[in-house]
Specification:
Layout: E1 3-7, E2 10-12, E3 18-25, E4 34-39, E5 45-51, E6 58-60, E7 68-73, E8 78-83, E9 92-98, E10 110-114
Length: 116
């Protein structure tokens, strides 16, 4: 069955960096676009970034553009999100999502907290 396991979250200071990973299994990873989404306290699920199946193109929400970078390693069945210049507003549970957009199958998430 499809399994997505996120890791790499934690506590970061404003202006700091974190790198999230998502290990995928149970499907042909290289056939699918992949997405990062997040759920902040008191808010709805928010699309963050998506990447084509071959990594040839990437898209970002305006709130993270220029600060976050999505990438993938199809040989390792792994999706990444490099997060730089973190802000308190980035505090959320971050999900790896199979497919394009935030409404697909997702993992359990990894918590990112940005605080001084």
């Amino acid at each position: 069955q499809v399994l997505l396991v996120e890791s790499g979250g934690g506590l970061a200071q404003p202006g700091g960096s974190l790198r999230l990973s998502c290990a995928a299994s149970g499907f042909t990873f290289s056939d699918y676009a992949m997405t990062w989404a997040r759920l902040a306290p008191g808010k709805g699920l928010e699309w963050v970034s998506s990447i084509y199946s071959d990594g040839s193109d990437t898209y970002y929400s305006e709130s993270v553009k220029g600060r976050f970078t999505i990438s993938r390693d199809n040989a390792k069945n792994t999706l990444y999100l490099q997060m730089n210049s973190l802000e308190a507003e980035d505090t959320a549970l971050y999900y790896c999502v199979k497919g394009w957009g935030e409404r697909g199958y997702r993992g359990q998430g990894t918590q990112v907290t940005v605080s001084s």
